[in-house]
Design a protein that fits this description.
5-stranded parallel beta sheet, EC 6.3.5.2, binds xanthosine-5'-monophosphate, 4-stranded mixed beta sheet, globular, alpha/beta, glutamine amidotransferase, 10 helices
Length: 330
């Protein structure tokens, strides 16, 4: 009968057979559960012949790139390259104030461009190594629900949810797809992660969208707006963890609204921005309900954000369910 231990053995054997003695695999990782677990499985199957690439878009949460780097290369021994592309992403997003779809397209296209360029470099280096062959494979952390969704709505799984997945890279790369999670549901991926030794706090992470903080900053994305959104988000998530609520909530974040309101800080009137907190409970992310915090908790978070984050004088809590709201703001 089926156990996770046997799944691991079988899948590692399958990957080894598929890739061969010298074959190499490349894949984008985000630090999310799926890509971390898929990458760990690849590492345990073929070691350094799996190349993980983390694109730092500059749109990640506070300390995120550092945390992912530490977990992946130090704890999980994954052969990881980090590409710092923050300036490029920011320059392309400049002036995009009122068009969420444009934001998403710019980020998606820039991501593909940066990843492909890095993949070419890694492939060129790999080609010079006598122990290894060419990079022929692209890892994708596709799950079973993605496979089903793609069959019923969108054609072949290689093209599913392109903008919804960090690994959603185009077929033009001429690589064959390797999808070790394609038979698993999310809860099984978590069990697999534990089995493979992925740290607990990584296994239980909330999902984080590919476009990152850009779709939580309404209006133009600038370094200053990123700073505010990042600091506020960090306070909110830290307080959620301290209150023991992290696992009860499916996803939570602080968004930055593009409006100003008046407040009094000390003895001065200020005219500054408004944070909207969002936290939802959901099982499938297709529908969701806002999380019911105790009022005292929300007040504590609000006080901390207004006092600690420069440029914010008000905090609100978004109680919209999905539908009609979406989980993200843009
Ligand atoms: P919405 O906002 O559509 O989000 O209710 C549902 C889930 O999908 C995530 N999401 C994304 N994930 N790239 C991603 O990797 C995206 O462009 C993207 N848009 C939404 C969202 O965070 C939530 O978990």
């Amino acid at each position: 009968d089926w156990t996770m231990g046997r799944f691991v053995d079988k899948e590692i054997a399958r990957i080894k057979a598929l890739v061969g003695e010298k074959g190499q695999v490349i894949g984008a990782v985000s630090g999310g559960v799926d890509s971390t677990v898929a990458a760990t499985l690849m590492q345990q199957a073929i070691g350094d012949r799996f190349h993980a690439v983390l694109v730092d878009t500059g749109l990640l949460r506070l300390n995120e790139a550092e945390t992912v780097k530490k977990t992946m290369s130090r704890d999980l021994n994954i052969n990881l390259a980090v590409v710092d592309a923050a300036d490029l992403f920011l320059s392309r997003l400049k002036g995009v104030t009122d068009d969420p779809e444009k934001k998403r397209k710019i980020i998606g296209n820039t991501f593909i461009e940066v990843f492909q360029e890095k993949a070419k470099k890694i492939a060129a280096e790999a080609a010079g190594s006598p122990q290894a062959g060419e990079i022929e494979w692209l890892l994708q952390g596709t799950l079973y629900p993605d496979v089903i969704e793609s069959i019923s709505f969108k054609g072949p799984s290689a093209t599913i949810k392109t903008h919804h997945n960090v690994g959603g890279l185009p077929a033009t790369m001429n690589l064959r797809l390797i999808e070790p999670l394609r038979e698993l549901f999310k809860d099984e991926v978590r069990v697999l992660g534990k089995e493979l030794g992925v740290p607990e706090e990584h296994v239980w992470r909330h999902p984080f969208p590919g476009p990152g903080l850009a779709i939580r900053i309404l209006g133009e994305v600038t370094p200053e707006q990123l700073r505010i959104a990042r600091e506020a988000d960090h306070i909110f998530i830290t307080e959620i963890q301290a209150a023991g609520l992290y696992k009860k909530i499916s996803q939570a974040y602080a968004a930055l609204l593009p409006v100003k309101a008046v407040g009094v800080m000390g003895d001065k009137r200020v005219h500054s921005q408004v944070i909207a907190l969002r936290a939802v409970e959901t099982t499938d992310f297709m529908t969701a309900d806002s999380f019911e915090f105790k009022h005292t908790f929300l007040k504590r978070v609000s006080n901390r954000i207004v006092n600690e984050v420069d440029g914010v004088c008000r905090v609100s809590y978004d109680i919209t369910s999905k539908p009609p709201g979406t989980i993200e703001m843009e």
